Each structure stands twice: as structure tokens, then as C-alpha cells.
């Protein structure tokens, strides 16, 4: 197991070795020495399935590039020097993380980041820009980024994170100018070990959470420690059964969508309240001096802009929560499909704690109908990505799933 900052990356030994080799090369070679193995590049594309650690890998690499410890003291990426600790904490002056709070990253935001990143480093070795969820770049934002990636400043490094190299996730022009690093789904054993060592969980809980998390480290941690997360998972999986019962199907749709919206409110409400109060205070609300009565006049647009960004953030959180539920549902049908079509033990189940329910479904629904259920869930995810209203998209999915399951009974 790697030490230093890369200890936070789970089950990605090959990627760790490649990024460390590049960080070492960056210390000795001229900047942007090419795309050769082990060399340094000005632009990187880090891909991997949800929960594999794309953004963690990017930040760890940024820390290794900024690390001031020498090789004999654990560098690059020692995890102890000021450069490493501030990078990992998100406070390093020369490392900027672009994290989309809404449904996309707009052109104005990207232009501002590019302009700042084009300056010379202030305290570090490099100016580094980490773009999390680069698949959320609008066309204009991607073009603004492409211009600087094509002709990069000598001391600037761009680290883009996306699910895959598919053109739906990252523009071909951007992809062609980046060195690609692909993460894999961490094995359950590695995730369980992290939960035991870092979170102090018992072996049984850690093994269960790792097994049902779909290789998503953060999801495993939430399932192991948050009873409400476990309830949401059960609600999503129950939809597989309730979809076949017309009297329950659309009630289940409302419950699933409402649960996602409630989770989003819980995640974003406190931050929104703090932001609103800080803005109102900055604009002079609550003052008692002469003239303060009219302080907020003409500031309605500023407050409305904040409210718009907060609403966009909450919408994204709701879509993300609903997407997690849909992935649980799709992998549940996948387990049933495997049970119906393949000998026992051929593939590891995604929901080993639901073996009896999965076997019952597999005994009644044919493989082609289970495959139609999976397709319906994936079509629902596509519809949500196209901004179809959640109740419409999930309702259409449940109608298709219910029909497929009733025909198979």
C-alpha cells in the first residue's frame, strides 16, 4: 500500500504508481516533456466509474506535484509538508478545484478560472486546476478550456475528471490533448479494509457495506454509518417488487422522488441559509445607522442570483440522489438476470443481502423481461440527464418495468 497522500486512494495501485512516476519526472524534466510513459504532461484526463476516486486521485496528484519534501523524506506526495497538507485541505494558493454546484459548469466560470490559472505560481511549483465532473462542462466552457489546453502556460497543469472518454462525457478535442489515466472499481475487500481502519467499523458492517456499495467508497461509508441511507436503498429496491402491483406502483414513484428531494434539501439547506445571511449582512441588512433603511434597495438582483445558484445546487443534489437509487435498482435487476441466465457463482452479486428476493424474481421473470427492466432504468437515467421532470421520467420507467414483470408472472 502506498504511503503519503496516495494512501487515500483505494484499490488503485497501478494509477498511484503512474502518477507518482510523473510527479518525480516533473521534478527533473522540463515542463510538459511529452506524453511518454512516466513523463509529465500539462493536461490529464482521469476517468473511472462513480466512487472509484477520480477527484481524490486528481487532488493527490496535485499534492505530489506541489510537494516540497525531497525523495529521501517521502516526496513527492509525502503527506506531511505544508504543500501537501494545504493541497489536500483545499487551501493551497496555487491549486484550484472547479466543483460544479449546479447542473453544469458555465463558460463565464471557466474563463475566470483559466485567466487566474494562466498566472505564474505564487508559492508552489505549479498552477494546478482540478476540474471535477468535467462531463458537466457546457460547450462554451469546454471551448474556453480547450484554448488554454492547446497553448498552455509553462507552469500550469490541468487535471480533468470524467466518468469515461466517451464523447458524451468529454469532448473529443479535449480528450485528444490530455494524457489519460483510467481508474478501476475498487474491490470490496479494499473498501472494507478502509472502513475498518479509517472509520473504526466492525468487520461485519464493513464487509456488508462494501459488498452492496457497487465499488463506491463514499457510498459504502454512508451505508455503514447512516440509517437513513440504508432506508433509502431499501426503498429503491422495493420498487422492483411494487412496480408489478398497479395499486402501489405510482405511490412508490412519488415516495422515491420525494425521498431524493428530501435528501437534497437536507444536504443543501444549512449551507444556503448561511450564504443568504452572509450576503444580507454584507449588503448592510440589520444595520441601525443613518441611511441603513435603504441599504438593500437595488440589491434584489444580487439576492435573486444567489437564490438561483442555490436552487440549481439543490436540483443537482436531488438528481444525484435519484440517480443513486436508479443504479441500485438497475443492479438489482442485473442480479436477477444473472441468477436466471447463468450458473450460481459465475458473477459476484451487487446485492448479496437480497439473494432470496432476487432468486424469487429470477424464477418468475424470463431473462429477456429482466433485460427490458434494466433498459427501462437506463432510459430513465438518460431522460433525467435531458432534464425531463423526475416524476415523469420515473413514472414512465415504472410503467415499463411493471408491464415487463406482470407479463413474466
Structural commentary:
With 409 residues, the chain is of the alpha/beta class. It is 58% helix and 6% strand. The protein contains 15 helices and 5 strands. It has a 5-stranded parallel beta sheet, with helices on both faces. The longest helix is centred in the last third of the chain and has 42 residues, at 300-341.
Descriptive keywords:
five-stranded parallel β-sheet, 15 helices, single chain, alpha/beta, 5 strands, globular
Compute the gyration radius: what is it? 24 Å
Quickly count the domains.
Answer: 3
Q: Treating each run of at least 4 consecutive H or I residues as one helix, how many helices?
A: 15
For the biggest β-sheet, the strand order reads 2-3-4-1-5
State the helical fraction: 55-70%
Write the CATH homologous superfamily of the largest domain: P-loop containing nucleotide triphosphate hydrolases
- Could you tell me the CATH topology label of the largest domain: Rossmann fold
Using the 3D structure, state the CATH architecture of the largest domain. 3-Layer(aba) Sandwich
Portion of residues in beta strands equals 5-15%
Total beta-strand segments:
5
Span between termini: 50 Å
Compressed to H and E, one letter per element, the order equals: HEHHEHEHEHEHHHHHHHHH
- How would you sum up the major sheet? 5 strands, parallel
- Large-scale geometry: globular
The CATH class of the largest domain: Alpha Beta
Write the layout of secondary structure elements.
Blueprint: H1 13-28, E1 43-47, H2 54-66, H3 82-89, E2 95-98, H4 107-117, E3 127-131, H5 139-150, E4 156-162, H6 172-176, E5 179-182, H7 188-199, H8 203-212, H9 217-225, H10 227-242, H11 246-282, H12 300-341, H13 355-364, H14 367-385, H15 390-408
Parallel strand pairs: 1-4, 1-5, 2-3, 3-4
Helix pairs in contact: 1-2, 2-3, 4-5, 7-8, 8-9, 9-10, 10-11, 10-12, 11-12, 11-15, 12-13, 12-14, 14-15
